Amino acid sequence: MAAPGDSARPLARERVQQFAVRVKAGIVCGPGVGEALRNLPPDIQKTRATLVDEKCEPREESGGWRFLYKGVSFLCPLIGYHNAENAFVAVVLCSQLG
Question: Fewest Cβ atoms nearer than 10 Å: which of 2, 20, 28, 54?
Fold first, then answer.
């Protein structure tokens, strides 16, 4: 699956940038999205929270998808790789916000 920041997906890149402009605190995203956000105008970059661009590598196993974050193993019991990515982003966000 192509990340929204891929050059093959200019509409998705534009939507990510439109979203980022409205965010007041914290953006956690997977690989590829960060590149789209780094290309925002400098005045917008300065007013936004630091970008966290984490790589997610879930693997399918019996009962769902497993991924690691900071040495801790998580199991997402939902069907679909995208759900594991979403769970990973939630874990990263919780870690960043404390």
Answer: 2
